[in-house]
Model the fold of this input.
Amino acid sequence: MNVLPNVLKTPLSMNERKLLKIVRQHGDIPRHKIVEHMDITAQAIGQIVRKLDQYQLLTHHKAVKVGVGQPPKPLSINPDGAFSVGIKIGRRHTDVLLVDLLGVVRDRYSIAYEFPIAHDLLNKIKEHLTRIQEKQAHEQKMLIGVGVATPFSMGGWSKLLGLSDAEANEWNALDVAAAIQNMTTAPVKLAKDTVAACIAELLNGQRAARQNFLYLYVDTFVGGSVVAQGRLLESAHGNVGAVASLPTALQSDRKQLLGEASLWELEQRFGVVSLEPLAAYGEEALDAQHIAQTDAWLMNASRALAFAIVSGTAFLDTDTVVIDGSMATRLLQKLIAKTNEALSTFNWEGLWPPQVIQGVVGSDAGALGGALMPLHEYFYA
Done:
């Protein structure tokens, strides 16, 4: 399947991407307002709009009469102008999302498991991806790319997860990006799962509201990333914000944040008292049968997260911490409230305490961030 029309084989210019970004940020916006955001003439903007119209990336709305003179005709992004696929491979489930040019999820497939066997999961991903691509081709819709979000070490912490050496080694030897690329002619991009989740929060959640924040995502294992001046903070190994490995006690104890503030720990608490471990991800975690174990987890997890936040603040001097996760919304809200309580017990001498807020995106964050990567790079960056 040819996923890119010939007119889009050449990357868009900087001004073309800037105009699309402005229109996306403002929604319906008249052309004269775009001029105020770009250091070019109205004539040049008209030329850019005509070119983008060739690609069907913009929607022209009817003129709105306001006062005297010619009424402005607002522009908006055409959500059907391009699509991408986001795949989030996790330790408990995988999500495959079809996302439009506005970042709205149009289709989804989910695969649940206790822990994935690599070759089995790849076969299921191929099945769903093929279905999406066939539908896009039938409807003549452009698929711009595939973004894959996955932990850097799916086979890591194998003893903790109860994996066999064979299961761990298969993941450790697998080139995930190459395996997915063999399933599609669309270009494939790979990112760490929590980095992709942070991208979704930055582009679809906070947008221009917050340009500097520490991002924490509580999933099977807790993870994170960092946004500085509106961009992901880059690092030597692409592993910035790897809070899962953060020690929570003296190194001789060898405890890490993932052992205190991950949903995996809540799973273990449920399992010990013969409750369904995967209830950690749903509303059941707050019912009468589960609440005692959940409250105990909340106490430990909030203290560990508070420790991580104070440490991160000392290094980053950030004014905001965004916490999101793959749990039920009410449980996430309780976790944030408990974390704020724990933060009040620390010595903040010499530091400015950040505001801790709830993430906007939720459980779709990893897969949505994966889908947004090619869309953002091609159309908005």
Notes: Residues 74 and 340 are 43 Å apart (CA to CA). The longest helix spans residues 291-316. The chain has a mean pLDDT of 90.
